[in-house]
Amino acid sequence: MKRIKVLFTIPNFDTAGSGKALLNIAQGLDSEKFEVHIMCLHNKGSLFEKVESSKLGVHLFNYIPESRPLSVMFKECWRVSRYLKKINPDIIHSYNYSANYTEALSAWMAGIPWVFTKKNMNWGGKSKNAWKLRSFLAKKIAVQNKDMQSLFYRNSKKTVLIPRGVNIEHFHPIHFLDTKKIKPSIKSTSRNLICVANFVPVKGIEILIQAFYNIYKKHTDWRLLLVGDASNDYGRQLQAIVSNLKMEERIQFSGKLLDVRPQLNRAEIFVLPTKNEGRREGSPVALLEAMAAGKVVIGSNVPGIGDQLEDFPSNLFEPSNIEDLSLKLEYFMSKSPEDLRERGLMFRAHVVENYPITKEIEKHELLYKSIIYKS
Question: What are the chain's domains?
Answer without folding.
Answer: 4-165+356-374 (3.40.50.2000), 191-354 (3.40.50.2000)
